[in-house]
Write a structure and sequence with these properties.
Elements lengths: L8 E6 L14 H4 L5 H13 L4 E5 L1 H9 L4 H8 L4
Parallel strand pairs: 1-2
């Protein structure tokens, strides 16, 4: 499209479930994974990389931490391995 996006950032990239009108902590994890799971996160990050923008700020750190407390480390382990600048 000819636009220079090299100085633009993606902000609040969805990396947690979207559960309107319900306390996330009261919803079973398998239900949460219907709107966000590791496969969907990877697909979202791949899409973000294709935009050409050099940085994306993810929305979901509190959820990843909550999952860790539940003994589910898949998200936080994956996030820790991502390239950060």
């Amino acid at each position: 499209n000819g636009r220079d996006v090299s100085s633009a950032f993606i902000t609040e990239l969805q990396a947690e479930p979207w559960i309107p009108n319900m306390d996330l902590k009261r919803m079973p994890v398998d239900e949460q994974f219907k709107s966000m799971n590791i496969k969907r996160l990877k697909k979202t990050l791949n899409y973000a990389a294709k935009t050409g923008m050099p940085r994306a700020y993810l929305w979901g750190a509190e959820w990843w931490h909550w999952l860790e407390v539940q003994g589910i480390n898949e998200f936080s382990d994956y996030i820790k391995e991502l390239k950060k600048e």
